[in-house]
Specification:
- The chain is of the alpha/beta class.
- It has one domain: Rossmann fold.
- Strands 2-3-1-4-5 form a 5-stranded parallel beta sheet.
- α4 runs parallel beside α5.
């Protein structure tokens, strides 16, 4: 199996997509591109401001456009937001040129990683753990669309990147 043209990391918020992507890209000789950062640079405002001022539906339309544009490029590790899987067209676009890898973690691990975060619009709730569990249950089946899946509980981003790198090498040498 040939080396993929790009890698797309999907998964719930707090599973380590951005951190793992930054550690994985140099191992593959790829550049890392974060969908949210891409949107922010084009919109000239933060994701939280987009949610606040324009709403989630507008953000999702920007996300779809960004995913479509990034999916056409080669040699990228594309790190996505946790909700990218809500639109099947995003997965279809990514699948055209990228191997899709899901990063998974328990709701408890996710909570520990994101509990003090102020830049996650969907977690601006009174009971953050309940919101994580609710969103996680809704989205977990959607992450199963990934080509490969890796647990990130109890591991550093560097460790996860190394595990993925080794799995890709093994997969490509078969």
């Amino acid at each position: 199996m040939p080396k993929p043209e790009s890698i797309a990391l999907i998964g719930f918020m707090g599973t380590g997509k951005t951190s793992v992507g930054k550690a994985l890209a140099p191992k593959l000789g790829f550049r890392v591109m974060d969908v949210d950062t891409y949107i922010e640079s084009h919109e000239k405002r933060k994701i939280s401001e987009i949610f606040d001022k324009s709403g989630e539906a507008y953000f999702r339309s920007l996300e779809k456009k960004a995913v479509s544009e990034l999916a056409q490029q080669k040699g990228l590790v594309i790190t996505t937001g946790g909700g990218v899987v809500l639109d099947p067209e995003n997965i279809q676009a990514l699948r055209q040129h990228a191997l899709i890898i899901a990063l998974l973690a328990s709701p408890e691990t996710i909570y520990e990683r994101v509990k003090s975060s102020k830049h996650r619009p969907l977690l601006q709730k009174e009971d953050v753990m309940a919101e994580i569990r609710h969103l996680y249950e809704d989205r977990a089946p959607l992450y199963q669309a990934a080509d490969l899946k890796f647990e990130t509980d109890g591991q550093t981003p560097s460790q996860v990147a190394q595990i993925i790198f080794e799995a890709l090498n093994k997969r490509n040498s078969v």
